[in-house]
Inverse folding.
């Protein structure tokens, strides 16, 4: 029997999306935040349509959780696609100044046009959007150097839109995480679940932990530079010759008295906290020539 698909679209997200589309009319610049571990899986397919011709600043958060070589590859890939990325670690403040300068510079032309019409300059209005739990609120708190919006390591914390003044030059709209109403790419949905970028009600821990091991094994063959040796060193168990389900079963037997649920939760929490080392679950696609 196949597992049910991962789907999560609670009422507060549907409402927030409607409000966000209305507020976007007032916005000059869009800061799109993605998870550096899964830049493509956290790409909302409707963002280009929503923002139209507005300037966009592409922020890759949690850069500390991926290997440096993969970060560089993603940087080159996005530049080739005319989307220069800004890598941040919002929890520790890395990359904040560059993001702020990028947002402010994107609004310079707006105030120039206001000046040309004899109008006074005003703060640039930016909105921070992205999937749940990718670090939007943490980014705003770091830009302000104080905690003004609630931030936690779980999806669905921010539920209301709120304007926050960063400086005389910049105002930010903190928006709840947005998701497609239908997650058609279930491989991407599994990555969202592994990274905790979707509500926990959407998935089964054992299925997702097994999928994480299977993805690790796939990356070991295709992109070993994306991985650390944390699974072996932390659990004393090599995943190379085991399926995800087998790995979970053996780990549960060895360490958790056959409690597969407990083993699955430990694997996922250790990955999400970075205790398994720097691991990128996606690497730039290779285009066949």
């Amino acid at each position: 029997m196949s597992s049910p698909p991962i789907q999560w679209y609670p009422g507060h997200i549907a409402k927030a999306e409607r409000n966000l589309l209305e507020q976007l009319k007032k916005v000059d610049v869009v800061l799109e935040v993605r998870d550096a571990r899964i830049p493509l899986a956290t790409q909302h397919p409707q963002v280009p349509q929503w923002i139209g011709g507005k300037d966009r600043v592409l922020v890759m958060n949690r850069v500390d959780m991926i290997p440096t070589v993969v970060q560089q590859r993603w940087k080159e890939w996005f530049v080739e696609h005319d989307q220069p990325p800004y890598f941040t670690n919002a929890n520790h403040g890395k990359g904040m100044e560059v993001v702020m300068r990028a947002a402010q510079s994107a609004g310079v032309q707006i105030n120039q046009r206001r000046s040309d019409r004899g109008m006074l300059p005003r703060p640039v209005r930016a909105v921070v959007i992205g999937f749940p739990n990718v670090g939007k609120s943490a980014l705003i708190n770091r830009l302000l150097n104080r905690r003004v919006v609630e931030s936690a390591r779980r999806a669905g914390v921010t539920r209301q839109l709120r304007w926050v003044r960063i400086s005389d030059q910049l105002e930010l709209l903190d928006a709840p995480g947005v998701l497609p109403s239908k997650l058609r790419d279930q491989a991407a949905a599994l990555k969202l679940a592994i990274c905790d970028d979707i509500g926990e009600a959407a998935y089964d821990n054992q299925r997702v932990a097994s999928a994480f091991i299977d993805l690790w094994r796939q990356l070991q063959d295709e992109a070993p530079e994306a991985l650390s040796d944390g699974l072996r060193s932390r659990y004393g168990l090599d995943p190379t010759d085991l399926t995800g389900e087998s790995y979970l079963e053996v780990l549960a037997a060895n360490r958790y008295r056959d409690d597969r649920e407990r083993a699955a939760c430990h694997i996922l929490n250790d990955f999400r906290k970075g205790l398994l080392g720097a691991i990128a679950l996606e690497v730039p696609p290779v285009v066949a020539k």
The CA atoms of residues 21 and 275 lie 38 Å apart. The two ends are 39 Å apart (CA to CA). The chain has two domains: 11-174, 204-272.
